[in-house]
Amino acid sequence: SLVNGAADYVLKQKMSRLAGAVKRVLLEEENRRGRKHAVEELKKLSHAVETAGDNIVITDKNGVIEYVNPAFEKSTGYRKEEVIGQKPSILKSGVHNEEFYKSFWHSILAGKTFRGVFTNRKKNGELYSEEHFVTPILDDKGTITHFVSTGRDITDQKQAEESLRRSEERYRNLVDGARDAIFSLSTSAIITSLNPAFETITGWKREDWLGKSFTSLLHPEDHEKAALIFRKVIQGEFSGPSEYRILKKSGEYLIGEFSTTAQYHEGKPVGVLGIARDVTAHRKLEEQLRQTQKLESIGTLAGGIAHDFNNILGIILAYNTMLQRRNLDAGRIHEAVSSITKAVARGSGLVKQLLTFARKSTSTIELIDVNRVINELTGMLVETFPKTVDFAIELRDRIPSIRADQSQLYQAVLNLCVNARDAMHSGGKLGIRTFESEGSILRNRLTEARHERYVGISVSDTGMGMSQEVQSRIFEPFFTTKDPGKGTGLGLAVVYGAVKSFGGLVDVESSVGKGTTFSIYLPILPGPVAVTKESGEHGDETRGGNETILIVEDEEAMRELLKAFLTDKGYSVITAADGLEALDIFAKRSKEISLVFSDFGLPKLDGFSLFKRMNEIKAGIKTIIATGFIEPNQKSEMLKAGIREIIQKPYVVNEVIAKIRSVLDVKS
Predict the structure, then answer these.
(1) What are 85-134's pLDDT values in tens digits?
(2) Is 602 helix (H, G, I), strand (E, B) or coil?
(3) DSSP for 501-533?
(4) In terms of C-beta density within 10 A (0-12 exposed, 13-18 middle, 19 or more buried), how is residue 120 classed?
(5) pLDDT tens readout for residues 427-446
(6) 175 class by beta-carbon count within 10 Å (0-12 exposed, 13-18 middle, 19+ buried)
């Protein structure tokens, strides 16, 4: 038993020593493996530091450099052995003051990571910007033992930012100092920015309109056009300059010439940037130029007009003489009356064309039937141009309507025709043609043709033609090849300006001795087809009535003629020779008077003033005004005031009677 107990004790001791030995062996193996792993991790960390693109600097707790990586050497130009044992102050540039560095040291000594941008100096003296992260390294007791600094060269970034800042500053200065209004819009046409010039031009404060719809600033008649152009710009299409009337704070409208372009972000439109220039004064000068040129054009036609009117008067006098003879049969009387009526209509048409052409008014853009304009114009030209000029008119059927100012288009084509006439000293062939042209084809000759389709008007002659040198100057104001006193040189300048204002183009083809062809191209824009309503004929079948009518006319013959016709139709007729006489009659008999038919140009009190005075006596009195000529804006004012109809003189009596009946039949 003792032996066995001793043996067990010895065995346990041996096993304990063996276990301890095995444990030591295992622990040593574990430590060896740990050291190997640590070495491998250290190698990885060292490789990462050595190959890092950022500058890495390790200093002791006093800021003395113990390590720099290759990126530092490459960035600063200093070799490792040159900076070990030095302090980072060797990189000081002198840009930062001492307070900057004190703040830096205060932060890292408090155990915080510092982040900031240093402007440092390389070994070669070159300055560079570096973004730094400086982190303190603490031991187990929380005591700082080292600092690790990671720096990234951001010189290019800083230069780019500075360049961008300067560009933005220049842009702001440019925008704020511009004399034109500069604005931006959202994709829903909401105003998002306005420069100071907007306030100067319009009188509004910018805050009055920021966040509001752009179209609210425009004249109501320009809304449709503005919306169309805005959609095109947002879709990335080129629209070219456009003109809109802009509402000023005073309530007046100025004329703004707009240039706009889409703004994009990541390839998608996010809004519109635009510039608007006040061209009101410029357009007024252009209007004066057009009026001056109109007078010149009328002057060139004066001889033909006088000849035509003399022929008209001669026809009337001849048939009037025939009617004075006795014993004329009914056929000859009818022939004389019919011829006189046609002659009067011919003279009336010529007067209407001259008045329409010569009127001074603001530009009115509307849908126009080009063929109708050409027919009206050529009707006058055939009568007034020399008989040695042979007209060849070729109008394309069903040509689309275009948007333009009819008076300006009329003048532009007239100017071309006058030039064509003057180019044919001994007569020749003057051709006027209308046609359609595809923008894609037109761009082969005129690169600025941006629209898909155009209506063309060409005026050609068989005259002397022009050299290339003359062609290069023909649209310059006051340039002319005519003899002194034969022309001001404004004609083609007016043509060019008018056509451009409609978004159109002008082209010329000419050879010396072979004639010239001018072509006007006007864009076909989306919109309804223009419908022209012609006055109908009214014969003796016009229905009469028994109402009382006051006729106010200073021409006795016309006054008595109207009275006779209306009396024959059953009406009771009262007459007055001037405005004051009519007002006195109306004041006494207003209850029985159902309608007033008055001339506009009356003695003592004009027709419109008479209406306003009568309207005070009997509100809503039905009134028709007859006039030889009236400005469009005045006509609009009269109709708004309550005038029922405005009839152009000279008029056909049966048409007047029909108009009176139609006005009387309208319920008040």
Answers:
(1) 998 888 888 888 888 888 888 888 877 888 888 888 899 988 888 888 88
(2) coil
(3) HTT-EEEEEEETTTEEEEEEEEE--S-PPP-PP
(4) buried
(5) 899 999 999 999 889 988 88
(6) middle
